Amino acid sequence: MQLHLVLLFLITLVVVDALTTYEEAKRLRENLVNAMLKPLPKDGKIRLIGGDNEYEGNVEIFHDRKWGSICDDEWDRNDGVVACRQLGYSGLVKVTHNSYFGTASQKFWMDNMLCDGTETKLKHCRFDDWGRHDCNNSEAAGIVCVNPLSAQNNSKEIRQRKKVHLVRNTNAEVRLSGSSSSHEGQVEVRFNGSLWGSICADGWSLLEANVVCKSLGLGYASGAVQTEYFGGAKFSKLLLSGSECRGNENSFFDCVFDEPGDIKCPGPKNHVAAVVCSEKMSDLIFDHLELEQTAHLEDRSLYYLQCAMEENCLSSQAYVVRKENPNWHYESRRLLKFTAKVLNAGTDDFRSYIPKHLWEWHMCHMHYHSMEVFAVFNILNEKNETVAEGHKASFCLEDNQCLPDVKPKYACANFGDQGISVNCSDIYRFNIDCQWIDITELEVGSYTIKISVNSEFKVPEMNFENNAAVCSLLYTETYARVFNCHLERP
After folding, report:
1. 280 and 348 in contact (C-beta within 8 Å)?
2. pTM for this entry
3. Which pLDDT value is given to residue 1?
4. CA distance 364 to 358
């Protein structure tokens, strides 16, 4: 036991004796002794917090004698399946993002989780180093596992929050309050002329914030905030929780919410939903024609893919090969390569949400990366299940190609500013590391391929309906063809 803990323990005993009767002091002393002697959880143990039931909540993991949160970057069903399995539940209902069960109160231990779904514990998955992250307390990852009572009764019905559309003929209003600026503040609503009330911040994201700004004629959301800065719940009663929008609704009340009167808000007591609106905003469009024209196969030795492996750009089987085969350098991987060209067709520059002083230097690529999880690549089978995937875990944003009357201003070299100017494109060509999907274990056949940028809606845009290209993929033993592409949301 560390010396400062022992001293704190002894001081606590003295205070207990001074402030209580003999019997109370004896009982409290016994409880304190038992608490101090209780063994610490094992490293890698996980727990759920903030949920209404034991089988749901934000996920926390124990490491280095402390509990910590997990960032929702790249948090997906495979990760959730492993977490539910580790906790002893029979399956996963859904994963949650944006601190759905309350803002994170612990430091983040894990970021960019990459489980393949077969692991028995989260700590066995690939992720950035312990404690290495770029997340804030509104980015906690969570899960809802299968209700054990439902599983015992052989029922497929899982208790979840019941979501409803508010009654259409209700006289519902929304406003911003708590700020001298008309373009920012906490979001408040009222119904039929009653008192104004605030909205629970849990799960509040740019999707909901964008609809609020649009509803009020204030442009687009440049920030979705979970805060008490503008007054918080202590100045207005909570009226809504569980807000979920696609981001393209015309009215905030076209979104879905928890049933009125059934407020669930496990986060910090006074934190409520707030927004910052802006008249100008970026808007990324993925070039699906470039994808169709450049997609091709390449077999490449792992010897030449060591830099890419550092960024988790190969399938999980490649890392098994490296671990188990002493001659792994001579093994090859089959890569589906393609170019990703992204145009900013908005009215403002697209910039990373990570401050420049937090950008990471990558020796392999010899430049700073300003974003994590900017691009995600998935191959789906006929059941819409992911059977192969890739990603750009780190990203360098720059103006590679601009319209004739636009001068490029963003470049990655020499720690330059990064971004995508209006009417400029950032191009990641197929000959660049990680601009591929490792399909070595994929069987030949017909699939769907989906390439998404800004897929986790971390950077504000006018809308996200054109951020993903969804195409048909024909894969044979000798070639691959990508065709029939169209644009949709990630």
Report:
1. yes
2. 0.80
3. 45
4. 18
